[in-house]
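user: can you give me the structure for this one chain? tokens are fine.
assistant: on it. calling the predictor now.
[tool input]
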Amino acid sequence: RRAAEALAHRDNEGAKAAARELAANLRSRRQLVSGPTVESVEDEIMEPEDRLALAERTLVAPLDEVATRTVAAAARQVSLVTAISPRALIDIAFVLYAAARLLRRIARIYGGRPGLFGFLRLARATVNHLAVTGGAAIGDGLVQQILGHGVAARISARLGEGVLNGLMTARFGLAAIEVCRPLPYIREAPPKLADVAGDLLSREGEGSPR
């Protein structure tokens, strides 16, 4: 929020303070990125957007990549497990368990260590973000892609349920990234559903009747 306010009001001191705090908080999670760092330009005259964009590129973008891979792995796992599980109750239990584990992992990627009450607040914020962004509708055209290619008519019902559960897990993961990410998106592009769940449709012919 402080970074967003600094951008909105073109507050250089606010941007500098936000970048400095972010660098301190993520010191243990930093990855080597070539070029200038937040600390090296501390005394340079820069636009607030440029300063925070540098913090985003050097501090947050590498973590975004890790978080995106984590969401993709969780979506694949949910898709597989719910496609082969024998009962719907097991599906529901596993999806809820996977979502909770995914949320905690993403929080840790961005340096968070939520306790029980912090985790519950984080979960509520993620669900609220999904509601605001229309996450329940899945979006990004993937459902249309499924229907357009006739996949639903060609694959088994269980495999289709697994794919949809995987897509919903991926959408939840993307909302978790938005909530846990310590900076707003400035110049980096936010991941899309196709980036973390597109491979769920890459083997659309598997499971189709011969």
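assistant: here you go. The chain has a mean pLDDT of 80. The CA atoms of residues 173 and 208 lie 29 Å apart.
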